[in-house]
What does this fold into?
Amino acid sequence: MSICYTCHSNCCRKLDFVLTGFDILKISKALELGPQFFTEIVEIKNKKDLEKIKLHYAIFNFSDNFNKNPFYFKLKKVSSSLIQDTLKCIFLQEWNITGSINESGIIGRCGIYSCRPFECYSFPAKYNEIEKNIIIEDVKAKYYQNKEEAYKLCSEKFQLTDFQNSSDELVSNINNENYEKEFFKQIAIKWNNNPGSIETFFKHLEKFYQQRIIVK
It folds into this structure.
């Protein structure tokens, strides 16, 4: 989208992107990296947060977690080398270029664009489960007032014209994202019936996906 051209990838700094099992395996295979390198396993300590999160995401229990709190998976964040005291997605590449396309002089681009997670593909669109349509979130109204410049999202409001050339792809991505989220929830149900350790989870994950196509 042209509206993103002058941005230093603030969405990859401010937002957390939750992973499905398909995302984890896709990235791991494409980069030949173990999932531990790029995943963050987030513990849910608040019961109110748990009720909200489990509506949309797969929640897992692990036998080696003595607190007995559930977890979900998201992309790991690391410290930015160019913007002090801020975090960024582990895969965000950034350069400081004098006279660049934005005032900060910083350019940021996704390092795994071709195999990025579904939530990254779909942003800023979300599926409205009640009305069964797709909503483009008003990112500017929600995030642009942030005091930290690196975490301000979108100086302009998105318009329908920003998506005219990619509307079919956007709908397809949203549908795939919803399917993969629901499938990952089903994996969570099976896993939580007899949870193992965090270490063994990734070994079992690929087996779950190998078994989802059945020939009759």
About this structure: The mean pLDDT is 86.
